[in-house]
UniProtKB/TrEMBL annotation:
Residues 30-42 have a biased composition (Basic and acidic residues). One of its GO terms (cellular component) is outer membrane-bounded periplasmic space. The keyword Transferase does not apply. The lineage of its organism: Bacteria, Pseudomonadati, Pseudomonadota, Gammaproteobacteria, Nevskiales. Pfam families: LptD_N. This is Lipopolysaccharide export system protein LptA. PANTHER family: LIPOPOLYSACCHARIDE EXPORT SYSTEM PROTEIN LPTA. Residues 1-25 form the signal peptide.
Length: 193
C-alpha cells in the first residue's frame, strides 16, 4: 500500500507537469486511451526513497514527512520542508509539499521509436498541491513551472491536468510571465523559396 502510494505520487507529479504547453506541443488534447501509455512511460521503474527528519504515518492513510524532506526515484525528485500525503481511496490521493521553496524535478524521457521525447519539467513554489482524484495541481507562493526551456511564473499557477488547462495570477498587482521558445526549424535548402 505504501509503495503504491509513492508510485502514484510520482506518476501524478510527472503527469501534472508533463502537459504544460510548449511551442512545439500539439493543440489536440490527449485521448483517454493515450493517457495510460503516457502514464506508463513516466512511472518509475526503480526504487522510491523518501528521507525526512520525522514521519507520522496514520492508519487513516495520511502520511506526514517533516524536516528536509526528499523524495527521489529514477525519474522524479521532490524536496521541501514538509510532505503531506493523503490516500483518498481507489488509488487516489492528495499530496501537499511545502518549502521555502518546495521543488519538483522530472527528468523527462528520451525519444524512442515513434514516441517523442518529453523534456525535463520543474516546478517551484512555497506550496505544491496535487489532487489525483480531480486531476488538479496548484502551485502557490512565487510559483514557477518550466518544461524544457518554456516557462511560466506568477504568484499562483492552477493546472487542470485532465483539460490540459493552465490558469495563473500575478497576485497583489504582480504579473504573470510566460516564455515560450520557438520551434527549432531546419533552415530551408539553398534555392528553396
Amino acid at each position: 500500500m505504501y509503495r503504491a502510494s509513492l508510485e502514484s505520487l510520482l506518476l501524478a507529479s510527472a503527469l501534472l507537469l508533463s502537459g504544460v504547453p510548449s511551442a512545439s506541443a500539439q493543440d489536440a488534447s490527449p485521448t483517454r486511451e493515450s493517457r495510460p501509455r503516457a502514464a506508463e512511460r513516466l512511472r518509475p521503474v526503480g526504487p522510491v526513497t523518501v528521507t525526512a527528519t520525522s514521519v507520522d504515518w496514520a492508519k487513516n492513510g495520511m502520511m506526514i514527512y517533516t524536516g528536509d524532506v526528499k523524495l527521489s526515484s529514477d525519474t522524479l525528485n521532490l524536496d521541501g520542508d514538509r510532505l503531506e500525503l493523503e490516500q483518498l481511496g481507489d488509488g487516489e490521493y492528495r499530496a501537499r509539499i511545502i518549502g521555502k521553496p518546495a521543488h519538483l524535478l522530472h527528468s523527462g524521457t528520451p525519444a524512442s521509436g515513434e514516441t517523442p521525447a518529453d523534456p525535463p519539467v520543474t516546478a517551484r513554489g512555497r506550496t505544491l498541491v496535487f489532487d489525483s482524484k480531480n486531476g488538479i495541481a496548484d502551485i502557490s507562493g512565487d510559483a514557477r513551472v518550466t518544461r524544457g526551456e518554456d516557462e511560466i511564473t506568477g504568484e499562483t499557477i492552477h493546472y487542470n491536468v485532465n483539460e490540459r488547462r493552465i490558469q495563473a495570477a500575478g497576485g497583489s498587482g504582480g504579473q504573470v510571465r510566460i516564455v515560450i521558445q520557438p520551434n527549432n526549424r531546419a533552415a530551408p535548402a539553398a534555392g528553396t523559396p
